[in-house]
Predict the structure.
Amino acid sequence: MLLPSLEDGITLLDVDGDRGVPILQSLVLDHLLLHDGPAFWIDANGLATTATLTQIAPSQRLLNRIHVARGFTAYQHYGAVCDLPTAVNKSIQMSTTDARAAGRRAPSRDEDTSPHTPALIVAPVVDAQYRADDTLGETHAETLQARTLARLATYAEGYDIPVLVTRNERNKFTESVATVADHHLECEQTRMGPRVIGEDFETLVYPVDDGAYYQTTFAYWRQLLAARATQVGVEPTTPAPSTPTSEGVGTGVTADGETVAATADPLLDAWTATGSGGR
């Protein structure tokens, strides 16, 4: 309900506002929670930070399932992408050997997945090294990036898994990233938290204390803004769905369908407070 599921094929995640490290790593960890198998992360610009992964991972065992390769130049990044099948085969051999040595079959969440084969490939800021490498001309940089994207598309089809990519910025150089993507997710930072929009997903609720959720429907926002307009002396052009009191702005709706009273500033403060589901 709060995070979109990653479908097979290449998914491009565009994040407005910053590098998008928390939402990127949240999507990776969420996918590993729902699927068996390891994730293979071809890193650039240091986005595979252990500190962030450790802070947001609900289980430390998830971290053992993330294999990271780093490319500090365009050729190193491309080489890491090319060497991915070798890393996958080595991982399969090690995991199956360990399972046989333990004398038991590793548990599986469903019949279509395996704890040995890859569950996800991650390639954040896939354009970064090719854009920044001074040893490459523009034509050579575009060619090498195109080869990288072609290999990622081949892996997505060959392994039947999602490949999650991001780009450093949107311009002519990264148009090929959007072209090769099968799915597209947009994430924008709001005061309530990150809002994600995809073909079949849109963030509609934000978590608050005690496991409750405030629903971001048009009716709720219209009611909130009408109360704010009254507070600053601007007469609303349309009547609010309910009459606000001097202490509140109306009501919010939880995920369980419960109607709760909401105040103006304390509500926004609660959404953005540390540990309450905000930023």
Remarks:
- The radius of gyration is 22 Å.
